[in-house]
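Input (structure):
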């Protein structure tokens, strides 16, 4: 009889969003006249910008003409998009060759698939609280996971230590859920640590476009030594509203080698076997993001989300509540008042002011006592939620 991958039985139920939806559903059934203000979801609410829509339409038309029609696309991505992405990095003085950029159909897909590059006996370090996919993808592969808790004391940006030794090191900056961002000196410590131990860093830069402090790195490749130890995974989802359109990219420098194997060559071999490329139409839409006009337009949308963050941060500042994030990220991570647990605080906000956020415990045990607010909703809802929160906690 076939043996299934028994590691699936080790996965914990993803009860976070399920539990949130159960609780909100029950509350609405009992209180049908109430309207909820939802600051929990990580999905965007603004439509794609005009430049992207224009490029998508043109690409659809291309597909109607014999001379412009595109069938299968190159597995690692269309040269026109790989060049645009490399050009985007060049703006920050990061030099990449076009074939160090791989186009993907999103960061989630890639975060799971990239694990094909590592032996199953390798260990993975996950700094918690963390985006849940890191843990689950490694459980499915049967890997040993080292959970490194972070805290308010280290600003949710822990430094490397003996406890952090692992073959694969996940770093997410700006972080989901905490919004914390590594500065260059902190990131250099992780790069040196990875190089000293022969580890590989998987750097999740899904929120890099939200960084407004010019001194902070958008890419791990702004750090000396990273070309020898890091893979960067990025997404058009939050940068340009592609959550439903699906597009991302992964950077694997040719200098990243272990035991005589070159990860860039390995990933090309993987892609040519396991994908037939991302749709021409979507890649054309993505290429429009990294034009002058496209960048202006996506940043206008990001500014709208950042303005939501400012509104909520103002209330938290007035209340004297500790939080991080918000300034360089679409998430605000706050300490629950009065030593409340994160689910207790969730219930309080739901029942007293009809505001829905995300309990920190859902991102790892050390997230208990904290709460995440997402800034991807409307200004109107965020203003109202900030006002109600202030009235409740003042
Ligand atoms: N990485 C982080 C940290 C995220 O928060 C998300 C989505 O919320 C992703 C990756 C997934 O992005 P994508 O939509 O490109 O799959």
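Output (sequence):
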């Amino acid at each position: 009889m076939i043996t299934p991958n028994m590691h699936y039985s080790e996965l914990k139920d993803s009860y976070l969003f399920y539990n949130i939806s159960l609780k909100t559903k029950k509350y609405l059934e009992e209180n049908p006249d109430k309207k909820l203000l939802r600051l929990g979801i990580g999905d965007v609410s603004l439509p794609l910008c005009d430049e992207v829509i224009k490029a998508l339409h043109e690409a659809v038309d291309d597909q109607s003409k014999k001379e412009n029609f595109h069938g299968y696309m190159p597995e690692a991505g269309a040269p026109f998009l790989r060049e645009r992405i490399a050009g985007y990095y060049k703006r920050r003085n990061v030099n990449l060759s076009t074939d160090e950029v791989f186009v993907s159909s999103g960061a989630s897909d890639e975060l799971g698939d990239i694990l094909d590059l590592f032996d199953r006996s390798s260990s993975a370090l996950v700094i918690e609280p963390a985006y849940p996919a890191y843990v689950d993808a490694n459980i499915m592969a049967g890997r040993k996971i080292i959970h490194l808790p972070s805290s308010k004391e280290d600003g949710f940006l822990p430094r490397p230590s003996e406890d952090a030794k692992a073959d694969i090191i996940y770093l997410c900056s700006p972080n989901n859920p905490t919004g914390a961002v590594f500065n260059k000196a902190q990131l250099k410590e992780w790069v040196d640590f990875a190089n000293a131990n022969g580890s590989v860093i998987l750097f999740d830069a899904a929120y890099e476009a939200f960084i407004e402090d010019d001194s902070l790195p958008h890419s791990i490749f702004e750090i000396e030594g990273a070309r020898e130890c890091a893979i960067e995974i990025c997404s058009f989802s939050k940068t340009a509203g592609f959550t439903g359109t699906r597009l991302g990219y992964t950077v694997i420098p040719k200098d990243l080698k272990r035991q005589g194997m070159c990860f860039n060559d390995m990933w090309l071999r993987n892609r040519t076997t396991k994908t037939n490329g991302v749709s021409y139409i979507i890649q054309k839409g993505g290429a429009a993001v990294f034009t002058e006009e496209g960048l202006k337009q996506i940043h206008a949308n990001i500014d709208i989300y950042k303005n939501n963050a400012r509104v909520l941060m103002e209330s938290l500042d007035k209340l004297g509540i500790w939080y991080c994030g918000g300034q360089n990220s679409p998430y605000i991570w706050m300490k629950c008042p009065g030593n409340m647990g994160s689910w207790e605080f969730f219930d309080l906000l739901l029942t007293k002011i009809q505001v829905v956020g995300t309990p920190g415990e859902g991102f790892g045990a050390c997230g208990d006592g904290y709460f995440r607010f997402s800034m991807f909703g409307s200004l109107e809802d965020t203003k109202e939620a900030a006002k109600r929160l202030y009235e409740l906690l003042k």
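Notes: Residues 45 and 378 are 8 Å apart (CA to CA). The radius of gyration is 21 Å.
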